[in-house]
Amino acid sequence: MSDRAAEPSRAPYGGWSSPVSAELIVSAAVGLGDVWVDDTHTWWSELRPAEAGRVELVRDGIDLLGAPWSARTRVHEYGGGAWWVHGGSVFFANWADQRLYRLDEGAEAPRPLTAAPPAPAAWRYADGRVSPDGRWIVCVREEHPPPGYEAPDGAHVEADNQLVAIDAQGGGELVVLHDGHDFVSSPRLSADGTWLAWVAWNHPNMPWDDTELWVARFADGAVRDARCLIAAEAGESIAQPEWGPDGQLYFCSDRSNWWNLYRFECDLLDGPIGFPVPLTTLESEIALPGWVFGRSRYAFTPEGDALVFAFGGDAHLHLGVLNLAEHRLETIETGLATFEALRVRTGPNGTEVVGVGAGFATEAAVVAIALADGTVRYVRPPRQLGLPAGIVSAPEHITFPSARGRTAHAWFYPPRNPAFVAPEGERPPLVVLSHGGPTAAANPSLNLSVQFWTSRGFAVVDVDYGGSTGYGRAYRKLLERAWGEVDVEDCCAAAEWLAAEGRCDPARMVIRGGSAGGFTTLAALTFRSTFKAGASHYGIGDLAALVAETHKFEARYCDGLIGPYPEAADVYEARSPIHHTDGLDCPLILLQGSEDVIVPPSQSRAMAAALEAKGIPHAYLEFEGEQHGFRQAANIMRALQAELSFYAQVFHFELGDPIEPVAIAFSERL
């Protein structure tokens, strides 16, 4: 018997058989969320597609809640910060009723701390902390008006976002601590429980635009002497305030163009406010955009002598260890691509950093990194995928020229499958990914949904168009009043540059994206001729309708991205694909959740109707009970398979694996 490896089969790009199936992508898959630690235990959350997207809380590998409990909040609709730990007890917002619950160690079941709301999900809670004496929870509450409620003067009534104090044992009256801003986040108590800090902002700002940093004295579930330390007029985004062991206030700010670390070194109430002192001056981001609550990218060592933080640079993720007394910075190379939910504790290997880390070739896991030598151990290992060696396509960070003299960024994944080679001279089809947000970023850690394409012979480029995070405030601001232009230009430029470099087939380039990325997809297909087909996942076709229908958190987002409405109504119409379908003449697949409140189904349905009226080949799939971002295993699988089938029919190639084909209206015109 020969030991020689089998010769690869020759097959066209796109038609390769692949072990990266839709079933593998969801099988035993979990989305890891927040992490909490003490010196003995580790808690983390798992979003489970196989359980209809239920979020379970896990301690040291053992489930704490069980069905039907789900630790997920609807504050801002995107949630985050849905649970926290104090003294071994877990506090969480339950998805079904949005009430706040407490689960004590040894208890048979969680018990409610907050009253039942007057209407379903009318009172929502997030981003909490427990006072050091265990008496109070301080958190964000979002109060929604009853269905059908109208103000006496006919004015639109938004949800009310507040900081509140809640009796940690339950049964007490809820106390409103702060109710003066459109939005609040990050309530953080000092170690002695006498100070409270928080971040606040108003429409039309988003948390990555102009925010305020506030402090107040805290005692007996109440605040006094509230004071704004950094006002919104300063033109900076404040993120993750934390009280240090030294009793001083730390936070991240992008006043230097990059989200760096700062500390206030002054009397916070008496005398002038003073200026925060920069602790790092990196040309790299430490904080992350506040799409969800509770994001943590730095923490203090147990001894209080150092601050540990995660930051990007040179397309890799690093840990920084800042000695606070000597102001000396050391860097630990992690080998990871991403790291979130950062916590620090004393562990079996000395001081260690615990969080959710993922590599370029490994899925997300709960990891612990020893500060002494950088040793990584798995607390919650990644899945064992069982994939053959050499099949994972590693990302390459690329920069390329774009419109108007700009330079843009992306992650490029070449097709890769050791079992196949393409015919001589053939170039691969290209899938361009347009991320959501749009104030977000491409994620280079292992994503089987990307490998689903590359292992079948597609090239993939995940574009960090102007407006993306990770490249500083100035790059993020490139999208100001330019959404639908800069993002489209950069996605097209990425595809055209790769084609010119000979790395893809210019006749088989497609674009796909979800939410804001779906809008970029639709705009690119409508206003440009770079792409031959596309896929919009719960994308936006009508910008004015979005402003009228979307939720409070993003109700004024478009003011900065496009312009105030209705003053800029002509710009909204000019950039909305639904009003320019005369320019849309290539095949399109639309995928939508029926219960999406962020981008309602009416958006995708209107686009489908326009395609039907024009006789353009298209497919429309609406998933019953699905929300914004597909979370249910069956829907995730069907969406991927349908999109692959769609491209195979558009470009007339045979698939290497049998899948259920998607029905395409006007397929005879392909």
CATH class annotation of the domain at 10-18 and 395-669? Alpha Beta
Task: Name the quaternary structure.
Answer: single chain
Instruction: Tally the helices.
Output: 10
Evaluate the radius of gyration: 25 Å
On the 0 to 100 scale, the average pLDDT is 94
| Broad structural category | alpha+beta
- Bin the helical content: 10-25%
**Amino-to-carboxy terminus distance:** 48 Å
Strand order, largest beta sheet: 30-31-34-33-35-36-37-38
Say what the CATH topology of the domain at 10-18 and 395-669 is.
Answer: Rossmann fold
Share of residues in strands: 25-35%
Give the name of the CATH architecture of the domain at 10-18 and 395-669.
3-Layer(aba) Sandwich
Low-confidence stretches: none
Shape, principal axes of CA atoms: globular
How many beta-strand elements? 38
| Major sheet attributes | 8 strands, mixed
CATH-assigned homologous superfamily of the domain at 10-18 and 395-669: Alpha/Beta hydrolase fold, catalytic domain
Could you describe the 3D structure shown?
- This protein is of the alpha+beta class and 670 residues long.
- Among the domains are: 10-18 and 395-669, Alpha/Beta hydrolase fold, catalytic domain (Rossmann fold, 3-Layer(aba) Sandwich); 298-382.
- It is 14% helix and 33% strand.
- It has ten helices and 38 strands.
- It has an eight-stranded mixed beta sheet with strand order 30-31-34-33-35-36-37-38, with helices on both faces. Strands 2-3-4-5 form a four-stranded antiparallel beta sheet, with no helix packed on it.
- Helix 4 (486-500) crosses helix 5 (516-527).
- The radius of gyration is 25 Å and the shape is globular.
- The model has no long low-confidence stretch (mean pLDDT 94).
